[in-house]
Amino acid sequence: MDVTHAIATILKAEGVEYLFGFPSNPLLDTGAAEDAGIRTIVTRQERTAVHMADAIGRLSAGDEIVAFACQHGPGTENSFGGVAQAYGESAPLVAIPAGYDEAKTDVDPKFNSRVNYQHVSKSCEQLTSPAAVGETMRRAFSAARNGRPRPAVVEVPKDVFHEEIPGDLEYHPSSSNRSGPDPDSVEEIAEVLLEAERPVIYAGQGVHYAKGWDALRELAETLEAPVATSLNGKSSFPETHPLSLGAGSKSEPGQLAHFLREADIIFGIGCSFTDTAYGITVPDGTTVVHSTLDPTDIDKDVESEYSLVGDAGLTLEALVDAIARRLDGESRGRFDDVAAAIESVREEWLDEWRPKLTADEVPINPYRVINELTTVVDAEDAIITHDAGNPRDFLAPFWESTEPLSYVGWGKTTQLGYGLGLAIGAKIYRPEKLCINIMGDGAIGMTGLDFETAVREDIPILTIHLNNYEMASYETPFSGDFADIGTALGGYAERIEDPEEVAPALERAIEKTEAGTPALLEFITAKETELSRPDLEE
């Protein structure tokens, strides 16, 4: 057996169902992956393939690791941004780029993945000995599965792919393990949370990976405390729940900032508290309790008075038990007051935004598109994501996620064109869901041709393009009729300029996706600049 077929066999043994990528890589070119029972999908651009793998890793809560393969040289260079994005967003996958022949791998100016990917991957190795294929691949999968999920990279020089492994392949798949928090610290923090007058819980993506959704809800209802999430943690707590504050980001609901201002303790669970424009700002003087799986995040950007290191689900369950023992069945008696205060602030905030959400102006106000989307689409039946910039900032405050892992949030490295691959990956993994991505002009220009990948592979996603002929603050107008492009690529597409046609167009497009056809809606929108940015200093 050669290295190529050995790797394909190992991928299947590790539970890999999909290999995404771009030729030329022997795993794709020889049919080895398909022979092993793995579905292969080739994209128009390497980065999109990585984004698809990223989506499945996250939407499976880390249970399903997807592999990515690409050509040596230009393929690995083009893929770098996708792997970097997955690293920044803590998404697990295993990348297997080809490298130059072993004798030339370190010769300048050849691109060496082992050298260049080290800072955007959790582990990064080069396979040089066919005898080491098993242990090398096992280390990669173990790194992706355990601890903080992130990409693992194994570069295989292109001549090594064709070398024979010695003897028979004997491979035992990697295991997945969880670690719990220090019991003494749990007891201390249970006391701290119960003594707080105005606690706020801040839930991150770690709650998703730990499947800690029920425990998070139980903790919130036991403490009778409001819950905010990060963008990556959005949907870990139902946003229709009376205690929900929504997700913190560059643009966020009004009630979130209000309760952060009032909080005496913020309990961060499964989050990094990374200093970013796409998270919350902790007010000065607020006591911070930080619980995370990655100890390097403790006190990294935000100082914490108390901390717990461990799996978010195990930590939440331990805290629920410790707090329940102390309450002994007694209610704290403030649920109704807290819920009423959240609803009051929320309604006041929505009243301020209703004119934009229902605007009749032409070009269409993008907030009108978002508002109609929330009305037409049942959030329970959908998985939604967005691109960087305005699509994220328009959507995040107003879309209420009700089911875990129904919103793929992101933002730390803000890579344009990310959302399309996420939606395609989401639809592959959850074919029964309506999978939506919202793009702007910059994003569709970077990865929009991979709409054809969705058409070619019968992956009926819904892409919404908010076209204001502008990218960020760049003044030179962008042009193009992207609805025509969507049609030319074989999908269903419409160009919408009348605000009264927004909802009917959405309904038509959804019907097309239900019939198996990818749909692209191009909404001609106004150059909206106002974002929901409630002030912590108010």
Automatic annotation (TrEMBL):
GO molecular function, one term: thiamine pyrophosphate binding
A biological process from GO: sulfur compound biosynthetic process
InterPro entries: DHS-like_NAD/FAD-binding_dom, THDP-binding, Thiamin_PyroP_enz_cen_dom, Thiamin_PyroP_enz_TPP-bd_dom, TPP-bd_CS, TPP_enz, TPP_enzyme_TPP-bd
Keywords linked to the UniProt accession: Thiamine pyrophosphate
Keyword Repeat: no
Domain Thiamine pyrophosphate enzyme N-terminal TPP-binding, first and last residues per copy: 1-106
SUPFAM superfamilies per UniProt: DHS-like NAD/FAD-binding domain, Thiamin diphosphate-binding fold (THDP-binding)
Domain Thiamine pyrophosphate enzyme TPP-binding positions: 387-522
PROSITE patterns assigned: TPP_ENZYMES
Region of interest: Disordered: 165-185
Cofactor: thiamine diphosphate
Top-level taxonomic group: Archaea
Record domain Thiamine pyrophosphate enzyme central: where: 186-319
GO (cellular component) term, any one: acetolactate synthase complex
Family recorded in the similarity comment: Belongs to the TPP enzyme family.
NCBIfam families: PRK06154.1
Protein name: Thiamine pyrophosphate-requiring protein
